Amino acid sequence: MKQKRNSLYIFSITLVAAIGGLLFGYDTAVISGAEKSLKVYFIDSLGLGSLAHGVTASSALIGCIIGGLISGYFGSRLGRKKTLILAAILFTVSALGAAYPEFLFFTKGEPTLSLLLAFNFYRIIGGIGVGLASAICPIYIGEIAPADIRGRLVSFNQFMIIFGMLIVYFVNWGIANGEPLEWINDVGWRYMFASEAIPALLFAVLLFLVPETPRYLAIKNQDQKALAILTKINGSSEAKAILGDIKKTIAINISSEKLFTYGKLVIIVGILLSVFQQFVGINVALYYAPRIFESMGAAKDSSMLQTIIMGLVNVIFTVIAILTVDRWGRKPLLIIGSIGMAIGMFGVASMAFSNIIGVWTLVFIIIYTASFMMSWGPICWVLISEIFPNKIRGQAVAIAVAAQWAANYFISSTYPMMMEYSGGLTYGFYGLMSVLSALFVWKMVPETKGKTLEQMENIWRRKDKKSGDSQII
Q1: Per-residue CA distances from 442 to 121, 336, 428 (Å)
Q2: CA distances from 150 to 156, 241, 327, 358, 376 (A)
Q3: Which of 4, 279, 289, 358 is buried most deeply by CB count within 10 Å?
Q4: Cβ count within 10 A of residue 428
Q5: In the prediction, which pLDDT does 255 show?
Q6: Long-range Cβ contact pairs of 458-461 (< 8 A, separation 24 or more)
Q7: Residue 220's pLDDT is what?
């Protein structure tokens, strides 16, 4: 009797892996509620300027770059599963360390430059965890997912990223709600960072219950284990054929694992996908959301509430992406999203140039973020997890993710200084990047809907031949 696809099993292991996405979102967005308190507690008390503030608010991104760069090495040497366990440990250490950076070496309540460096060190540790998770979670899900639902399952990771951000918006608001500003600036921000330890520990425990990916096991010549997992996921009728395809792609150029085995174009496309996802300015809206709304005239409590509303919009439109990515395809959603983002950002820029602050600014921000969440938010990760052939996936994803976090750090850390110069030009720049992202997708990104990971190799081999470079490097 032929075994059928086990949908419950697929969803269960996807859900566990996607907790890494939740922690990714939680860790990167927790700063949105704490950054003003950090400015008061550290930056203002030490007499530092906007550059130090921007670097402190974005310090985790340094770790994200490091984590992205080393993800290929750890993912290939330790495996996808063990690398995610390592990320969970780093999340836990960072959460507790950032909440109480005085641990062992400093006196609580006495901010010093050394203490600020210690805080940033713990944030960088968490950033390394984010970098690892941001690369390996989509790889893990992509490598266990059947081709016809891979887009939905990898997009679910983005849903969990946004869900993590939404949770932390509520957590930050709950901690700050009704408390005096002095308490928030002295103690409240510590609870915000410490709260992350709970999902981080849960992630670490649940990872022991999921398998390694069959494609990684096949690469390591553990064919029987790979076949058993493929059978449980896809059913016995398909498992052997899938394993055979995996082994064929691994066997080709077995003596070489060079990054440019399939040409340079696939690497360039992966890097540009990552860079454009950040240069459109989304993380500015996520990290600095309460401050943006306060600059529009909202009080502290209402700015946090508007941030929660924006978080709900993000969740809703990410669900739209999940429901449509395997139906409509990757390219149409990306191009539609780019157009929507351009409209939103140019709208915000026009409001800033006209010194008009009001409901229309909020509307344009929601148009922008909704457009991102139904397109570039999830679809970029889907493409990064699937466009690279098996042999180079670990290395190539590491480079793409490191490029993404480097772009993220540049955009986030320069935002305060850019806003001091001109808010209109700042948002206009993000609008221009949105237009360029649409042109990039239209001209360079292949459609991957419904293709197996093994079929990606053929896409890039054909493109390589069309460009006149049929030789494998």
Answers
A1: 41, 11, 22
A2: 10, 18, 12, 41, 16
A3: 289
A4: 18
A5: 43
A6: 459/387, 460/262, 460/263, 460/265, 460/266, 460/389, 461/262
A7: 83
**CA 212/CA 201 separation, integer angstroms:** 20
| Residue labelled with tokens 């079929």 | 455
Query: Which of 362, 368, 377 shows the shortest CA–CA distance to 330?
Result: 377
Six-digit token pair at 389? 């052939």
Helices vs. strands in the chain: H and E counts, helices first: 22, 0
Provide Rg for the chain, Cα atoms: 22
Give the single-character DSSP code of 145: S
Sole residue written with tokens 């999902």: 199
Among the listed residues 143, 158, 152, the one whose alpha carbon sits nearest the alpha carbon of residue 217: 143
**CA distance to 158, 168, 289, per residue, from 124 (Å):** 22, 19, 22
Helices 7-38, 50-57: inter-axial angle, 10-degree rounding = 160
Please give the full DSSP string across 381-438, using - where no structure is assigned.
Answer: HHHHHHSS-GGGHHHHHHHHHHHHHHHHHHHHHHHHHHHHH-HHHHHHHHHHHHHHHH
List the Cα angle 88/94/98 in 5-degree steps.
155
Residue whose token pair is 């309540």: 109
pLDDT value for 203: 95
Q: Are the beta carbons of 211 and 229 closer than 8 angstroms? A: yes
- The count of residues in the chain is 473
For residue 239, give both structure tokens: 């498992």
Place of tokens 């507690």: 41
**Which residue ranges in the chain fall short of pLDDT 50?**
1-2, 253-256, 468-473
- Which amino acid, residue 417? M
User: Tokens 């820029």 appear where?
Assistant: 349
